[in-house]
Write a structure and sequence with these properties.
Layout: H1 3-10, E1 18-21, H2 27-39, E2 43-47, E3 49-51, E4 58-60, H3 70-79, E5 86-92, E6 100-106, E7 121-124, E8 127-130, H4 134-144, H5 159-162, H6 165-173, H7 180-186, E9 190-191, E10 194-195, H8 197-203, E11 217-221, E12 239-241, H9 245-260, E13 264-267, E14 270-273, H10 278-291, E15 300-304, E16 308-314, H11 335-341, H12 354-365, E17 372-375, E18 379-385, H13 392-400, H14 408-415, H15 420-432, E19 436-438, E20 449-451, H16 460-466
Protein name: ATP-dependent DNA helicase RecG
EC number: 3.6.4.12
Domain Schlafen AlbA-2: 15-130
Length: 472
C-alpha cells in the first residue's frame, strides 16, 4: 500500500459499511461485527488499526506475521463454514513498517448469522445491535426472506375471500374452474379455517378492512423540487388507493399518470409537458406492492414532485438483495402473491425480477437518467427523476438558444443538480471556452449568464424583453 492508500484507510469513517479494529480484538467480539454486517448490508473490516481514546489519532499497527491472524480468520470460518459471503486479504505498507492489516469484505447473507454468544446482530450506523427479542428476530427473518408475513392468517370469515367479486372473476379466468374454497385449500392459502394474508390481499374486494394501515397506496402531489415536500406545497389532500392488489396496482398507475400529465415545467425550449414512461411507473409500483414487507404497518407512498416521482415501499430489501445487485439477482419475498397475481388476466407482473429491468430500459428510451434505488432503515425508496441524459453544459447551451439568459437556479431546476457551487463551476468552464459570459449589471443573487458575444452588445435580450409574455 502506498502512503495515500494507507492514509485513506486510517482516515476511514466508521459507519454502516466499515469498521476498524486493533489486533487485540477478541474473536468473540469480532464475531459480533461479522454477524452485524452479514445480517445487514455487508461491509468491510480492517483489523490492525489502533485508535486513541479520544479517536483523534489512528495508527497502522498490524500483525507481525500473517499467521498471527489465524484466530481471527477462524472466527470468520466458524460463521461462514462454506467460505461464502466473505473474503480477506492482507495489506502491508510499501516500507514494510507496521505489519500486516487484515482486510475483510463481508457480503449480505441469505440466512441469519449469529455471533459466538448465540445472538444475531445487525449493523446500524457504526453500531452492532444485538437482536434479542422475538419481535426483532421476526423482523430479521422477514428481512432475510426466511419467513414472510404473507403466510400469516387474517381474522376475517372465509367468505370475505371466497365470495368476493375479485375471487369470482379470478376463478372464471383459470382452467379448470373449481370452487373457491377448494382452490384456496389446495394452494395452502387457508390455514386453520382462516384466509392467509396473501389470499386476503389477492382475492378480497377490500383487504384494507382486514389489514388496516398496511395494504393501501397513498399518492401525494408536491408543487416543488425541494428535497422534501411540506403541507405548504401539497397540491391536494393525499389520495388513497384501496382494493385488492391487482386492481390497486392498475388504479395507482392510472392516477399517477393522470396527475403527472397536468405538470408542466420550463425546459430548454419553453413550457414542456413532464414525461415519464408509463412502463417505468407501472413496473416500479407493481414491484412496491408485490415485494413489500406486509409485516410493516405502513402503506406504499407515492410522492409526485415537479421534477421527480418517489415510490416508497415498506420493508428493507430481502435476503441477499441489495440496491447494487437488484437488477441482476432474483428473489421473491411474497412467493404466493407474486405467483397468483401472475394468473390474473393481463397480469401486472411478467416474471420475478424482470420488472425493474424493464423500468430502467424504458427510461433510457426517453433519454432520461436511470431511477435511483436506495434503502432506508425501514423501507426501499425508488426515485424516478425527470432528468435528461444530456450533460449540464449541453442543457445550458440549448436553453440559451431559446432564452436570452440563464441563472444558477434555472440550471439546478433543469439538471437536478442540488449544489449552487457545482453550477458555478460549470458556468466558469463554459466562460473559459468563450461559450457564455456574465450578463452586465447583474450580480449577487440576480447574477445571470448569456451566450458569448465577444464584447459586441447583444440586441437579442432587448428584443425578447420587449415581448409581453416573455418567460424568464
Amino acid at each position: 500500500m502506498g502512503a495515500d492508500e494507507v492514509n485513506q484507510i486510517i482516515g476511514l469513517d466508521e459507519g454502516h459499511f466499515a469498521d476498524l479494529k486493533a489486533i487485540e480484538v477478541s474473536p468473540s467480539k469480532l464475531s459480533r461485527s461479522i454477524s452485524a454486517f452479514a445480517n445487514a448490508d455487508g461491509g468491510e473490516l480492517y483489523i490492525g488499526v489502533d485508535e486513541s481514546s479520544d479517536r483523534a489519532r489512528r495508527t497502522w499497527r498490524g500483525f507481525s506475521r500473517t499467521e498471527d491472524a489465524n484466530g481471527h480468520i477462524q472466527a470468520f470460518e466458524s460463521i461462514f463454514p462454506l467460505g461464502q459471503y466473505f473474503s480477506y486479504e492482507f495489506l502491508r505498507r510499501e516500507s514494510g513498517r507496521g505489519g500486516y492489516v487484515l482486510h475483510v469484505n463481508i457480503q449480505k447473507s441469505r440466512d441469519i448469522k449469529r455471533a459466538t454468544d448465540g445472538h444475531p446482530y445487525v449493523r446500524r450506523g457504526a453500531q452492532n445491535i444485538a437482536v434479542k427479542t422475538e419481535e426483532a428476530l421476526d423482523v430479521l427473518r422477514r428481512n432475510k426472506g426466511i419467513t414472510s408475513f404473507e403466510t400469516e392468517t387474517t381474522r376475517v370469515p372465509l367468505d370475505f375471500v371466497t365470495n368476493s367479486e375479485a375471487m369470482i372473476e379470478f376463478m372464471i379466468s383459470i382452467v379448470p374452474i373449481i370452487e373457491p374454497e377448494i382452490f384456496l385449500r389446495k394452494q395452502l392459502l387457508i390455514d386453520d379455517g382462516k384466509p392467509t394474508v396473501a389470499a386476503t390481499l389477492l382475492f378480497s374486494d377490500e383487504p384494507q378492512a382486514a389489514l388496516p394501515k398496511r395494504s393501501a397506496i397513498k399518492i401525494y402531489r408536491y408543487k416543488t423540487t425541494d428535497i422534501e415536500g411540506s403541507r405548504e406545497n401539497l397540491a391536494f389532500n393525499p389520495i388513497t388507493i384501496e382494493g385488492g392488489a391487482y386492481r390497486q396496482i392498475y388504479g395507482a398507475v392510472s392516477k399517477v399518470v393522470e396527475v403527472i400529465e397536468e405538470i408542466q415545467y420550463l425546459g430548454p425550449s419553453g413550457l414542456e409537458q413532464i414525461q415519464y414512461p408509463i412502463e417505468t411507473l407501472h413496473e416500479i409500483i407493481t414491484n412496491a406492492v408485490l415485494h413489500r414487507d406486509y409485516g410493516v404497518a405502513d402503506d406504499v407512498h407515492i410522492r409526485i414532485f415537479d421534477n421527480r416521482v418517489e415510490i416508497e415501499s415498506p420493508g428493507r430489501l430481502p435476503a441477499h438483495i441489495t440496491a447494487e445487485n437488484i437488477l441482476r439477482e432474483r428473489y421473491s419475498r411474497n412467493g404466493n402473491i407474486v405467483r397468483w397475481i401472475n394468473k390474473f388476466p393481463e397480469p401486472p407482473n411478467k416474471d420475478v425480477g424482470e420488472g425493474l429491468n424493464t423500468a430502467f430500459a424504458a427510461m433510457k428510451k426517453l433519454k432520461l437518467k436511470d431511477p435511483i434505488i436506495r434503502e432506508t432503515d425501514h423501507s426501499v425508496l425508488v426515485e424516478v427523476r425527470h432528468q435528461k441524459l444530456a450533460s449540464p453544459e449541453q442543457m445550458i447551451m440549448e436553453y440559451l438558444e431559446n432564452f436570452p439568459e440563464i441563472t444558477n437556479k434555472r440550471v439546478r431546476e433543469l439538471t437536478g443538480i442540488g449544489s449552487e457551487n457545482k453550477v458555478k463551476s460549470i458556468f466558469i468552464r463554459l466562460a473559459d471556452r468563450k461559450q457564455i459570459e456574465r450578463v452586465p449589471g447583474k450580480g449577487g443573487g440576480a447574477a445571470a449568464w448569456r451566450k458569448y458575444t465577444g464584447g459586441v452588445p447583444d440586441a437579442s435580450s432587448a428584443k425578447i424583453a420587449a415581448r409581453p409574455n416573455a418567460q424568464r
